[in-house]
Recover the amino acids of this structure.
Protein backbone atom coordinates (compact mmCIF):
# COMPACT_ATOMS: atom_id res chain seq x y z
CA UNK A 1 0.00 0.00 0.00
CA UNK A 2 2.80 2.42 0.90
CA UNK A 3 4.46 1.75 -2.47
CA UNK A 4 1.31 2.89 -4.30
CA UNK A 5 1.14 6.03 -2.19
CA UNK A 6 4.78 6.91 -2.88
CA UNK A 7 4.39 6.17 -6.62
CA UNK A 8 1.27 8.37 -6.86
CA UNK A 9 3.02 11.21 -5.11
CA UNK A 10 6.04 10.82 -7.39
CA UNK A 11 3.81 11.38 -10.45
CA UNK A 12 2.79 14.74 -8.99
CA UNK A 13 6.20 15.68 -7.60
CA UNK A 14 6.91 18.02 -10.48
CA UNK A 15 3.57 19.74 -10.02
CA UNK A 16 4.38 20.36 -6.37
CA UNK A 17 7.84 21.66 -7.18
CA UNK A 18 6.58 24.00 -9.91
CA UNK A 19 3.60 25.33 -7.97
CA UNK A 20 5.04 25.49 -4.46
CA UNK A 21 4.40 29.20 -4.31
CA UNK A 22 0.68 28.53 -4.85
CA UNK A 23 0.39 26.92 -1.40
CA UNK A 24 -0.90 29.65 0.88
CA UNK A 25 -1.47 29.95 4.61
CA UNK A 26 -5.13 29.10 4.06
CA UNK A 27 -4.18 25.85 2.31
CA UNK A 28 -2.08 24.67 5.26
CA UNK A 29 -4.78 25.70 7.73
CA UNK A 30 -7.35 23.63 5.83
CA UNK A 31 -5.52 20.27 5.90
CA UNK A 32 -5.71 19.62 9.67
CA UNK A 33 -8.56 17.13 9.32
CA UNK A 34 -6.77 15.32 6.49
CA UNK A 35 -3.77 14.82 8.75
CA UNK A 36 -5.95 13.50 11.57
CA UNK A 37 -7.65 11.01 9.25
CA UNK A 38 -4.63 9.62 7.39
CA UNK A 39 -1.40 11.47 8.17
CA UNK A 40 1.17 9.65 6.04
CA UNK A 41 0.03 10.65 2.49
CA UNK A 42 -0.33 14.28 3.64
CA UNK A 43 3.11 14.09 5.26
CA UNK A 44 4.71 12.93 2.00
CA UNK A 45 3.02 15.81 0.18
CA UNK A 46 4.35 18.29 2.74
CA UNK A 47 7.88 16.95 2.26
CA UNK A 48 7.58 17.51 -1.51
CA UNK A 49 6.38 21.07 -0.99
CA UNK A 50 9.19 21.74 1.50
CA UNK A 51 11.80 20.94 -1.17
CA UNK A 52 10.85 24.30 -2.71
CA UNK A 53 10.47 26.20 0.55
CA UNK A 54 12.30 29.22 -0.89
CA UNK A 55 9.23 29.85 -3.06
CA UNK A 56 6.94 29.99 0.00
CA UNK A 57 6.20 33.13 1.97
CA UNK A 58 7.63 33.10 5.51
CA UNK A 59 4.24 32.74 7.19
CA UNK A 60 3.17 29.96 4.82
CA UNK A 61 6.41 28.08 5.52
CA UNK A 62 5.80 28.32 9.29
CA UNK A 63 2.34 26.84 8.76
CA UNK A 64 3.89 24.05 6.66
CA UNK A 65 6.25 23.26 9.56
CA UNK A 66 3.27 23.32 11.94
CA UNK A 67 1.36 20.73 9.88
CA UNK A 68 4.52 18.69 9.31
CA UNK A 69 5.13 18.45 13.07
CA UNK A 70 1.46 17.55 13.61
CA UNK A 71 1.80 14.65 11.15
CA UNK A 72 5.13 13.49 12.60
CA UNK A 73 3.79 13.16 16.13
CA UNK A 74 0.76 11.17 14.90
CA UNK A 75 3.07 8.90 12.87
CA UNK A 76 5.35 8.45 15.92
CA UNK A 77 8.31 9.94 14.03
CA UNK A 78 9.52 11.33 17.34
CA UNK A 79 13.10 12.14 16.27
CA UNK A 80 11.91 13.95 13.15
CA UNK A 81 9.23 15.67 15.22
CA UNK A 82 11.86 16.93 17.66
CA UNK A 83 14.03 18.19 14.79
CA UNK A 84 11.09 20.00 13.17
CA UNK A 85 10.13 21.66 16.47
CA UNK A 86 13.71 22.83 17.13
CA UNK A 87 14.10 24.16 13.58
CA UNK A 88 10.72 25.92 13.61
CA UNK A 89 11.47 27.62 16.93
CA UNK A 90 14.69 28.99 15.46
CA UNK A 91 12.63 30.68 12.70
CA UNK A 92 10.02 32.25 14.96
CA UNK A 93 10.11 36.03 15.34
CA UNK A 94 7.99 38.58 17.28
CA UNK A 95 5.97 39.00 14.08
CA UNK A 96 5.21 35.28 13.66
CA UNK A 97 1.53 34.24 13.86
CA UNK A 98 0.57 33.77 17.56
CA UNK A 99 -1.31 30.55 16.75
CA UNK A 100 1.82 28.99 15.27
CA UNK A 101 4.06 30.23 18.09
CA UNK A 102 1.69 28.87 20.74
CA UNK A 103 1.41 25.54 18.90
CA UNK A 104 5.19 25.11 18.79
CA UNK A 105 5.40 25.91 22.50
CA UNK A 106 2.97 23.02 23.05
CA UNK A 107 5.02 20.80 20.73
CA UNK A 108 8.20 21.67 22.66
CA UNK A 109 6.34 20.60 25.80
CA UNK A 110 5.54 17.24 24.18
CA UNK A 111 9.23 16.74 23.33
CA UNK A 112 10.21 17.49 26.95
CA UNK A 113 7.50 15.19 28.32
CA UNK A 114 8.66 12.26 26.15
CA UNK A 115 12.17 12.77 27.54
CA UNK A 116 10.87 12.67 31.12
CA UNK A 117 11.42 16.42 31.71
CA UNK A 118 7.99 17.07 33.21
CA UNK A 119 8.68 20.45 34.83
CA UNK A 120 10.11 21.78 31.56
CA UNK A 121 7.10 20.37 29.68
CA UNK A 122 4.64 22.03 32.06
CA UNK A 123 6.44 25.37 31.63
CA UNK A 124 6.10 25.15 27.82
CA UNK A 125 2.38 24.29 28.06
CA UNK A 126 1.73 27.22 30.40
CA UNK A 127 3.63 29.51 28.03
CA UNK A 128 1.43 28.33 25.13
CA UNK A 129 -1.72 28.89 27.22
CA UNK A 130 -0.68 32.43 28.15
CA UNK A 131 0.01 33.39 24.54
CA UNK A 132 -3.22 31.79 23.33
CA UNK A 133 -5.24 33.56 26.02
CA UNK A 134 -3.77 36.97 25.12
CA UNK A 135 -4.74 36.44 21.48
CA UNK A 136 -8.16 34.81 22.10
CA UNK A 137 -7.03 31.53 20.53
CA UNK A 138 -9.56 29.37 22.35
CA UNK A 139 -8.77 26.08 20.58
CA UNK A 140 -4.99 26.35 21.09
CA UNK A 141 -5.52 27.39 24.73
CA UNK A 142 -7.77 24.41 25.50
CA UNK A 143 -5.45 21.97 23.73
CA UNK A 144 -2.42 23.21 25.71
CA UNK A 145 -4.42 22.98 28.97
CA UNK A 146 -5.27 19.32 28.28
CA UNK A 147 -1.57 18.59 27.54
CA UNK A 148 -0.68 20.22 30.88
CA UNK A 149 -3.30 18.16 32.74
CA UNK A 150 -1.87 14.90 31.37
CA UNK A 151 1.70 15.90 32.26
CA UNK A 152 0.65 16.73 35.84
CA UNK A 153 -0.96 13.28 36.14
CA UNK A 154 2.40 11.65 35.25
CA UNK A 155 3.90 13.26 38.37
CA UNK A 156 0.86 12.08 40.40
CA UNK A 157 -0.64 15.57 40.87
CA UNK A 158 -4.05 14.05 40.19
CA UNK A 159 -6.29 16.69 41.79
CA UNK A 160 -4.56 19.54 39.94
CA UNK A 161 -4.74 17.51 36.75
CA UNK A 162 -8.49 16.84 37.12
CA UNK A 163 -9.20 20.50 37.91
CA UNK A 164 -7.43 21.61 34.72
CA UNK A 165 -9.21 18.91 32.71
CA UNK A 166 -12.59 20.05 34.03
CA UNK A 167 -11.93 23.61 32.90
CA UNK A 168 -10.64 22.40 29.52
CA UNK A 169 -13.75 20.27 29.01
CA UNK A 170 -16.12 23.20 29.67
CA UNK A 171 -14.14 25.38 27.27
CA UNK A 172 -14.11 22.66 24.57
CA UNK A 173 -17.84 22.18 24.99
CA UNK A 174 -18.41 25.92 24.59
CA UNK A 175 -16.39 25.72 21.34
CA UNK A 176 -18.62 22.79 20.27
CA UNK A 177 -15.46 20.97 19.15
CA UNK A 178 -16.26 17.24 19.26
CA UNK A 179 -12.68 16.25 18.46
CA UNK A 180 -11.21 18.31 21.28
CA UNK A 181 -13.85 16.96 23.68
CA UNK A 182 -12.83 13.42 22.65
CA UNK A 183 -9.14 14.19 23.26
CA UNK A 184 -9.99 15.47 26.75
CA UNK A 185 -12.11 12.36 27.41
CA UNK A 186 -9.11 10.24 26.41
CA UNK A 187 -6.93 12.15 28.89
CA UNK A 188 -9.59 11.64 31.57
CA UNK A 189 -9.35 7.92 30.83
CA UNK A 190 -5.58 7.95 31.40
CA UNK A 191 -5.76 9.97 34.64
CA UNK A 192 -8.57 7.87 36.14
CA UNK A 193 -6.63 4.74 35.21
CA UNK A 194 -3.61 5.99 37.18
CA UNK A 195 -5.94 6.74 40.11
CA UNK A 196 -7.41 3.20 40.06
CA UNK A 197 -10.83 4.59 39.08
CA UNK A 198 -11.09 1.91 36.43
CA UNK A 199 -14.79 2.06 35.57
CA UNK A 200 -14.55 5.82 34.97
CA UNK A 201 -11.40 5.25 32.92
CA UNK A 202 -13.15 2.71 30.66
CA UNK A 203 -16.18 5.00 30.30
CA UNK A 204 -14.09 7.98 29.15
CA UNK A 205 -11.92 5.93 26.80
CA UNK A 206 -15.04 4.49 25.13
CA UNK A 207 -16.48 7.99 24.69
CA UNK A 208 -13.28 9.11 23.02
CA UNK A 209 -13.09 5.98 20.85
CA UNK A 210 -16.69 6.44 19.65
CA UNK A 211 -15.97 10.02 18.52
CA UNK A 212 -12.65 9.13 16.86
CA UNK A 213 -14.24 6.30 14.88
CA UNK A 214 -17.13 8.57 13.84
CA UNK A 215 -14.63 11.19 12.62
CA UNK A 216 -12.43 8.58 10.93
CA UNK A 217 -9.28 9.70 12.79
CA UNK A 218 -7.13 6.55 12.58
CA UNK A 219 -4.20 7.60 14.84
CA UNK A 220 -6.55 8.64 17.63
CA UNK A 221 -8.60 5.43 17.34
CA UNK A 222 -5.35 3.52 17.91
CA UNK A 223 -4.48 5.63 20.97
CA UNK A 224 -7.92 5.06 22.54
CA UNK A 225 -7.66 1.30 21.98
CA UNK A 226 -4.25 1.36 23.68
CA UNK A 227 -5.73 3.28 26.62
CA UNK A 228 -8.51 0.70 27.03
CA UNK A 229 -5.94 -2.10 26.96
CA UNK A 230 -3.85 -0.38 29.64
CA UNK A 231 -6.86 0.10 31.93
CA UNK A 232 -7.88 -3.55 31.56
CA UNK A 233 -4.31 -4.39 32.58
CA UNK A 234 -4.61 -2.21 35.68
CA UNK A 235 -7.93 -3.98 36.46
CA UNK A 236 -6.13 -7.34 36.23
CA UNK A 237 -8.44 -8.39 33.40
CA UNK A 238 -5.45 -9.72 31.56
CA UNK A 239 -7.19 -11.61 28.74
CA UNK A 240 -9.17 -8.48 27.79
CA UNK A 241 -5.97 -6.45 27.96
CA UNK A 242 -4.13 -8.88 25.69
CA UNK A 243 -7.00 -8.77 23.17
CA UNK A 244 -6.94 -4.96 23.07
CA UNK A 245 -3.15 -4.76 22.81
CA UNK A 246 -3.30 -7.25 19.93
CA UNK A 247 -5.99 -5.12 18.26
CA UNK A 248 -3.72 -2.10 18.72
CA UNK A 249 -0.90 -3.94 16.91
CA UNK A 250 -3.29 -4.71 14.02
CA UNK A 251 -4.44 -1.08 13.71
CA UNK A 252 -1.05 0.66 13.53
CA UNK A 253 -0.67 -0.05 9.81
CA UNK A 254 -1.55 3.59 9.08
CA UNK A 255 2.10 4.53 9.74
CA UNK A 256 5.21 2.97 8.15
CA UNK A 257 7.11 3.61 11.37
CA UNK A 258 7.75 0.17 12.85
CA UNK A 259 9.03 1.69 16.10
CA UNK A 260 5.40 2.34 17.08
CA UNK A 261 5.10 -1.39 17.81
CA UNK A 262 7.19 -0.59 20.90
CA UNK A 263 4.07 0.54 22.73
CA UNK A 264 2.18 -2.63 21.84
CA UNK A 265 5.12 -4.76 22.94
CA UNK A 266 5.33 -2.71 26.13
CA UNK A 267 1.67 -3.32 26.94
CA UNK A 268 1.79 -7.03 26.14
CA UNK A 269 5.03 -7.55 28.06
CA UNK A 270 3.70 -5.79 31.17
CA UNK A 271 0.42 -7.75 30.95
CA UNK A 272 2.07 -11.16 30.59
CA UNK A 273 4.38 -10.36 33.52
CA UNK A 274 1.53 -9.30 35.78
CA UNK A 275 -0.47 -12.35 34.70
CA UNK A 276 2.43 -14.54 35.86
CA UNK A 277 3.36 -15.80 32.38
CA UNK A 278 7.01 -14.88 32.67
CA UNK A 279 8.17 -16.95 29.69
CA UNK A 280 6.03 -14.93 27.26
CA UNK A 281 6.66 -11.74 29.23
CA UNK A 282 10.46 -11.92 28.92
CA UNK A 283 10.24 -12.64 25.20
CA UNK A 284 8.01 -9.62 24.52
CA UNK A 285 9.85 -7.30 26.95
CA UNK A 286 13.18 -8.03 25.23
CA UNK A 287 11.52 -7.20 21.90
CA UNK A 288 10.25 -3.88 23.28
CA UNK A 289 13.63 -2.91 24.75
CA UNK A 290 15.27 -3.47 21.37
CA UNK A 291 12.94 -0.84 19.87
CA UNK A 292 13.22 2.88 20.43
CA UNK A 293 10.63 3.89 23.00
CA UNK A 294 10.16 6.33 25.86
CA UNK A 295 12.71 6.30 28.63
CA UNK A 296 10.20 6.18 31.52
CA UNK A 297 8.42 3.25 29.83
CA UNK A 298 11.76 1.44 29.55
CA UNK A 299 12.19 1.76 33.31
CA UNK A 300 8.85 0.00 33.88
CA UNK A 301 9.89 -2.79 31.50
CA UNK A 302 13.16 -3.32 33.35
CA UNK A 303 11.24 -3.56 36.63
CA UNK A 304 8.88 -6.20 35.26
CA UNK A 305 11.79 -8.10 33.74
CA UNK A 306 13.53 -8.10 37.12
CA UNK A 307 10.37 -9.45 38.77
CA UNK A 308 10.19 -12.30 36.26
CA UNK A 309 13.87 -13.12 36.64
CA UNK A 310 13.39 -13.35 40.42
CA UNK A 311 10.42 -15.68 39.87
CA UNK A 312 12.49 -17.87 37.52
CA UNK A 313 15.52 -17.83 39.83
CA UNK A 314 17.77 -15.93 37.40
CA UNK A 315 19.00 -13.63 40.14
CA UNK A 316 22.03 -12.08 38.40
CA UNK A 317 19.84 -11.06 35.47
CA UNK A 318 17.29 -9.68 37.93
CA UNK A 319 19.95 -7.54 39.61
CA UNK A 320 21.10 -6.18 36.26
CA UNK A 321 17.53 -5.22 35.30
CA UNK A 322 16.97 -3.44 38.63
CA UNK A 323 20.17 -1.47 38.10
CA UNK A 324 19.02 -0.46 34.61
CA UNK A 325 15.71 0.83 36.02
CA UNK A 326 17.50 2.70 38.81
CA UNK A 327 19.85 4.38 36.33
CA UNK A 328 16.86 5.63 34.31
CA UNK A 329 15.05 7.04 37.37
CA UNK A 330 18.29 8.74 38.44
CA UNK A 331 18.07 10.78 35.21
CA UNK A 332 14.41 11.73 35.85
CA UNK A 333 14.43 13.90 39.02
CA UNK A 334 10.71 14.67 38.64
CA UNK A 335 9.94 11.00 39.40
CA UNK A 336 12.06 10.82 42.56
CA UNK A 337 10.04 9.42 45.50
CA UNK A 338 7.04 8.58 43.30
CA UNK A 339 5.63 5.07 43.46
CA UNK A 340 7.27 4.31 40.08
CA UNK A 341 10.79 4.94 41.42
CA UNK A 342 10.16 3.56 44.92
CA UNK A 343 9.22 0.14 43.51
CA UNK A 344 12.90 -0.48 42.69
CA UNK A 345 13.57 -0.61 46.45
CA UNK A 346 10.84 -3.20 46.88
CA UNK A 347 12.43 -5.24 44.08
CA UNK A 348 15.79 -4.94 45.84
CA UNK A 349 14.18 -6.43 48.95
CA UNK A 350 12.58 -9.29 47.02
CA UNK A 351 15.90 -10.04 45.30
CA UNK A 352 17.71 -10.09 48.64
CA UNK A 353 15.18 -12.58 50.04
CA UNK A 354 15.55 -14.76 46.96
CA UNK A 355 19.32 -14.72 47.50
CA UNK A 356 18.86 -15.76 51.14
CA UNK A 357 20.04 -12.37 52.39
CA UNK A 358 17.12 -11.81 54.76
CA UNK A 359 18.69 -9.03 56.79
CA UNK A 360 19.25 -6.79 53.77
CA UNK A 361 15.87 -7.85 52.43
CA UNK A 362 14.15 -6.46 55.50
CA UNK A 363 16.28 -3.31 55.34
CA UNK A 364 15.23 -2.64 51.74
CA UNK A 365 11.56 -3.32 52.51
CA UNK A 366 11.67 -1.14 55.62
CA UNK A 367 13.17 1.70 53.57
CA UNK A 368 10.51 1.16 50.88
CA UNK A 369 7.60 1.27 53.35
CA UNK A 370 8.95 4.31 55.19
CA UNK A 371 9.38 6.23 51.93
CA UNK A 372 6.02 5.10 50.63
CA UNK A 373 4.33 6.18 53.86
CA UNK A 374 5.94 9.61 53.49
CA UNK A 375 4.61 9.67 49.94
CA UNK A 376 1.09 8.93 51.24
CA UNK A 377 1.32 11.73 53.81
CA UNK A 378 2.54 14.20 51.20
CA UNK A 379 -0.19 13.27 48.75
CA UNK A 380 -3.06 12.48 51.15
CA UNK A 381 -6.46 13.58 49.85
CA UNK A 382 -9.95 12.20 49.66
CA UNK A 383 -9.48 10.98 46.12
CA UNK A 384 -6.35 9.00 47.01
CA UNK A 385 -7.76 7.13 50.04
CA UNK A 386 -8.58 4.11 47.92
CA UNK A 387 -5.04 4.08 46.52
CA UNK A 388 -3.60 4.02 50.02
CA UNK A 389 -5.99 1.23 51.04
CA UNK A 390 -4.92 -0.84 48.02
CA UNK A 391 -1.24 -0.34 48.86
CA UNK A 392 -1.89 -1.32 52.49
CA UNK A 393 -3.51 -4.56 51.26
CA UNK A 394 -0.53 -5.16 49.00
CA UNK A 395 1.79 -4.59 51.97
CA UNK A 396 -0.09 -7.20 54.02
CA UNK A 397 0.10 -9.71 51.14
CA UNK A 398 3.85 -9.14 50.89
CA UNK A 399 4.22 -9.67 54.63
CA UNK A 400 2.36 -12.98 54.40
CA UNK A 401 4.52 -14.01 51.43
CA UNK A 402 7.71 -13.17 53.32
CA UNK A 403 6.51 -15.13 56.34
CA UNK A 404 5.88 -18.20 54.17
CA UNK A 405 9.32 -17.88 52.63
CA UNK A 406 10.92 -17.56 56.05
CA UNK A 407 9.20 -20.76 57.23
CA UNK A 408 10.37 -22.63 54.13
CA UNK A 409 13.97 -21.54 54.70
CA UNK A 410 13.58 -22.58 58.34
CA UNK A 411 12.71 -26.14 57.27
CA UNK A 412 15.58 -26.38 54.77
CA UNK A 413 18.27 -24.69 56.87
CA UNK A 414 17.78 -25.78 60.47
CA UNK A 415 21.38 -24.87 61.20
CA UNK A 416 20.58 -21.19 60.64
CA UNK A 417 17.75 -21.15 63.19
CA UNK A 418 19.32 -18.49 65.35
CA UNK A 419 19.81 -16.16 62.37
CA UNK A 420 16.23 -16.73 61.25
CA UNK A 421 14.90 -15.84 64.72
CA UNK A 422 16.76 -12.55 64.51
CA UNK A 423 15.27 -11.92 61.09
CA UNK A 424 11.80 -12.62 62.46
CA UNK A 425 12.32 -9.91 65.05
CA UNK A 426 13.35 -7.47 62.32
CA UNK A 427 10.21 -8.38 60.41
CA UNK A 428 7.94 -7.76 63.42
CA UNK A 429 9.62 -4.43 64.15
CA UNK A 430 9.16 -3.30 60.54
CA UNK A 431 5.52 -4.43 60.55
CA UNK A 432 4.80 -2.62 63.85
CA UNK A 433 6.50 0.58 62.64
CA UNK A 434 4.56 0.52 59.39
CA UNK A 435 1.28 -0.17 61.18
CA UNK A 436 1.91 2.64 63.66
CA UNK A 437 2.72 5.08 60.87
CA UNK A 438 -0.38 4.12 58.89
CA UNK A 439 -2.54 4.32 62.04
CA UNK A 440 -1.16 7.79 62.73
CA UNK A 441 -2.01 8.84 59.16
CA UNK A 442 -5.57 7.54 59.49
CA UNK A 443 -6.14 9.25 62.85
CA UNK A 444 -4.69 12.54 61.61
CA UNK A 445 -6.75 12.33 58.42
CA UNK A 446 -9.92 11.66 60.42
CA UNK A 447 -9.34 14.61 62.77
CA UNK A 448 -8.68 17.07 59.97
CA UNK A 449 -11.07 15.71 57.37
CA UNK A 450 -13.98 18.06 58.11
CA UNK A 451 -11.78 21.13 58.28
CA UNK A 452 -9.96 20.24 55.06
CA UNK A 453 -13.23 19.45 53.31
CA UNK A 454 -14.77 22.77 54.38
CA UNK A 455 -11.73 24.67 53.15
CA UNK A 456 -11.68 22.76 49.87
CA UNK A 457 -15.28 23.66 48.92
CA UNK A 458 -15.45 27.28 50.11
CA UNK A 459 -14.53 30.44 48.20
CA UNK A 460 -12.51 32.49 50.73
CA UNK A 461 -13.56 35.91 49.39
CA UNK A 462 -17.34 35.50 49.20
CA UNK A 463 -17.88 32.79 51.79
CA UNK A 464 -20.02 30.85 49.32
CA UNK A 465 -19.09 27.56 47.62
CA UNK A 466 -16.16 27.60 45.18
CA UNK A 467 -16.22 26.82 41.46
CA UNK A 468 -15.23 23.18 41.67
CA UNK A 469 -17.77 22.29 44.36
CA UNK A 470 -20.72 24.13 42.78
CA UNK A 471 -20.09 22.35 39.46
CA UNK A 472 -19.81 18.99 41.26
CA UNK A 473 -23.18 19.73 42.91
CA UNK A 474 -24.67 20.62 39.53
CA UNK A 475 -23.37 17.37 38.04
CA UNK A 476 -25.03 15.33 40.79
CA UNK A 477 -28.31 17.25 40.80
CA UNK A 478 -28.69 17.09 37.00
CA UNK A 479 -28.29 13.30 37.04
CA UNK A 480 -30.62 12.99 40.06
CA UNK A 481 -33.28 15.21 38.49
CA UNK A 482 -33.14 13.28 35.22
CA UNK A 483 -33.44 9.94 37.02
CA UNK A 484 -36.43 11.15 39.09
CA UNK A 485 -37.98 13.17 36.22
CA UNK A 486 -37.97 16.24 38.48
CA UNK A 487 -37.39 19.90 37.66
CA UNK A 488 -34.15 21.84 38.02
CA UNK A 489 -33.15 25.40 37.16
CA UNK A 490 -29.96 27.46 37.47
CA UNK A 491 -29.30 31.19 37.74
CA UNK A 492 -26.02 32.55 36.36
CA UNK A 493 -25.55 36.19 37.37
CA UNK A 494 -22.82 38.77 37.08
CA UNK A 495 -22.26 42.07 38.96
CA UNK A 496 -22.73 44.89 36.44
CA UNK A 497 -19.79 47.23 35.71
CA UNK A 498 -17.73 45.59 38.44
CA UNK A 499 -14.43 46.62 36.84
CA UNK A 500 -15.48 50.29 37.04
CA UNK A 501 -16.33 49.82 40.72
CA UNK A 502 -12.87 48.36 41.34
CA UNK A 503 -11.14 51.10 39.35
CA UNK A 504 -13.08 53.97 40.97
CA UNK A 505 -13.30 52.82 44.60
CA UNK A 506 -10.43 50.36 44.91
CA UNK A 507 -10.14 46.59 45.24
CA UNK A 508 -10.90 46.44 49.00
CA UNK A 509 -14.33 47.95 48.30
CA UNK A 510 -14.73 45.56 45.35
CA UNK A 511 -14.04 42.63 47.67
CA UNK A 512 -16.65 43.97 50.10
CA UNK A 513 -19.19 44.18 47.24
CA UNK A 514 -18.58 40.53 46.31
CA UNK A 515 -18.99 39.46 49.94
CA UNK A 516 -22.23 41.50 50.41
CA UNK A 517 -23.70 40.24 47.13
CA UNK A 518 -23.00 36.64 48.22
CA UNK A 519 -24.73 37.34 51.57
CA UNK A 520 -27.76 38.93 49.90
CA UNK A 521 -27.99 36.00 47.50
CA UNK A 522 -27.95 33.47 50.34
CA UNK A 523 -30.65 35.45 52.17
CA UNK A 524 -32.82 35.61 49.04
CA UNK A 525 -32.59 31.94 48.07
CA UNK A 526 -34.72 29.25 49.64
CA UNK A 527 -33.68 26.39 51.90
CA UNK A 528 -32.16 23.75 49.66
CA UNK A 529 -30.95 26.19 47.00
CA UNK A 530 -27.18 26.37 46.46
CA UNK A 531 -24.95 29.31 45.48
CA UNK A 532 -21.29 29.42 44.51
CA UNK A 533 -18.83 31.96 43.11
CA UNK A 534 -17.37 30.58 39.86
CA UNK A 535 -14.95 33.37 39.05
CA UNK A 536 -14.44 37.14 39.32
CA UNK A 537 -17.83 38.76 39.87
CA UNK A 538 -19.81 35.79 38.52
CA UNK A 539 -22.07 33.54 40.65
CA UNK A 540 -24.04 30.36 39.95
CA UNK A 541 -27.24 29.39 41.82
CA UNK A 542 -28.77 25.89 41.64
CA UNK A 543 -32.52 25.67 42.28
CA UNK A 544 -33.70 22.04 42.73
CA UNK A 545 -37.38 21.19 42.07
CA UNK A 546 -37.85 24.55 40.33
CA UNK A 547 -39.27 25.33 36.89
CA UNK A 548 -38.43 28.32 34.67
CA UNK A 549 -41.32 30.47 35.94
CA UNK A 550 -40.41 29.97 39.61
CA UNK A 551 -36.73 30.57 38.81
CA UNK A 552 -37.61 33.86 37.10
CA UNK A 553 -39.53 34.99 40.19
CA UNK A 554 -36.58 34.19 42.45
CA UNK A 555 -34.19 35.93 40.03
CA UNK A 556 -36.30 39.10 39.98
CA UNK A 557 -36.40 39.13 43.79
CA UNK A 558 -32.62 38.66 43.91
CA UNK A 559 -32.06 41.47 41.38
CA UNK A 560 -34.30 43.85 43.37
CA UNK A 561 -32.74 42.97 46.75
CA UNK A 562 -29.25 43.74 45.45
CA UNK A 563 -30.40 46.90 43.67
CA UNK A 564 -32.05 48.22 46.86
CA UNK A 565 -29.12 47.37 49.14
CA UNK A 566 -26.84 50.16 50.40
CA UNK A 567 -23.14 49.82 49.56
CA UNK A 568 -21.05 52.47 51.33
CA UNK A 569 -17.39 53.23 50.67
CA UNK A 570 -14.82 54.32 53.29
CA UNK A 571 -15.43 57.92 52.22
CA UNK A 572 -19.17 57.48 52.98
CA UNK A 573 -20.15 57.51 49.30
CA UNK A 574 -23.21 55.39 48.50
CA UNK A 575 -22.75 53.16 45.45
CA UNK A 576 -25.60 51.48 43.58
CA UNK A 577 -24.87 47.87 42.64
CA UNK A 578 -26.92 45.89 40.11
CA UNK A 579 -26.71 42.44 38.59
CA UNK A 580 -27.67 40.77 35.29
CA UNK A 581 -29.14 37.26 35.49
CA UNK A 582 -29.36 34.41 32.95
CA UNK A 583 -31.75 31.48 33.58
CA UNK A 584 -31.86 27.97 32.14
CA UNK A 585 -33.77 24.86 33.23
CA UNK A 586 -34.06 21.20 32.39
CA UNK A 587 -36.56 20.63 29.59
CA UNK A 588 -37.81 17.67 27.58
CA UNK A 589 -34.38 17.23 25.95
CA UNK A 590 -32.92 16.45 29.43
CA UNK A 591 -29.71 18.38 28.88
CA UNK A 592 -26.44 17.49 30.56
CA UNK A 593 -24.72 19.84 32.96
CA UNK A 594 -22.44 21.48 30.39
CA UNK A 595 -25.36 22.28 28.07
CA UNK A 596 -27.40 23.73 30.95
CA UNK A 597 -24.47 25.98 31.90
CA UNK A 598 -23.88 27.16 28.32
CA UNK A 599 -27.60 28.00 27.98
CA UNK A 600 -27.57 30.13 31.14
CA UNK A 601 -24.39 31.85 29.95
CA UNK A 602 -26.07 32.78 26.65
CA UNK A 603 -29.06 34.16 28.57
CA UNK A 604 -26.70 36.20 30.79
CA UNK A 605 -24.95 37.52 27.68
CA UNK A 606 -28.28 38.76 26.32
CA UNK A 607 -29.16 40.35 29.67
CA UNK A 608 -25.92 42.31 29.53
CA UNK A 609 -26.52 43.49 26.00
CA UNK A 610 -30.11 44.54 26.78
CA UNK A 611 -28.87 47.21 29.13
CA UNK A 612 -27.82 45.27 32.26
CA UNK A 613 -29.81 44.97 35.50
CA UNK A 614 -31.96 42.46 33.58
CA UNK A 615 -33.30 38.91 34.03
CA UNK A 616 -33.35 36.80 30.84
CA UNK A 617 -34.33 33.14 30.41
CA UNK A 618 -32.73 30.94 27.77
CA UNK A 619 -36.09 30.45 26.04
CA UNK A 620 -36.03 34.22 25.25
CA UNK A 621 -32.57 34.12 23.68
Amino acid sequence: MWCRVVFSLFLFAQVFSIQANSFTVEHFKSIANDINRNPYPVYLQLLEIEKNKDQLEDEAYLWLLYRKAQAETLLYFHDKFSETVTYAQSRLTPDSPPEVVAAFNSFAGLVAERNGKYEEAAAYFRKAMALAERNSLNYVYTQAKHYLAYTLSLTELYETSLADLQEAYVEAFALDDHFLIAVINETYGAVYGYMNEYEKSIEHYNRALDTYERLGYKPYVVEAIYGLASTYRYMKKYDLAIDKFSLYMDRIEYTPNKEISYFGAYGLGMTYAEKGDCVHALEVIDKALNLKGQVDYDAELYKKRAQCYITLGQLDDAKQSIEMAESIFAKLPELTDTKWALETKKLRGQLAFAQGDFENGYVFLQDYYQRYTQFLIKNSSTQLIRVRAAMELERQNIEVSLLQQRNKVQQLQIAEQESENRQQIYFIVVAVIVLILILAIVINQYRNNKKIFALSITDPLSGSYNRRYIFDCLDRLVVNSQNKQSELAILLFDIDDFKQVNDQYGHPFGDEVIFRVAQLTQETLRVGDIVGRIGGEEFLCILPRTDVKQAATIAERLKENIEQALFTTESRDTVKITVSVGISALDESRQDRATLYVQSDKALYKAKHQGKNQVVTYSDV
Q: What stands out?
A: The first strand starts at residue 488 and ends at 495.
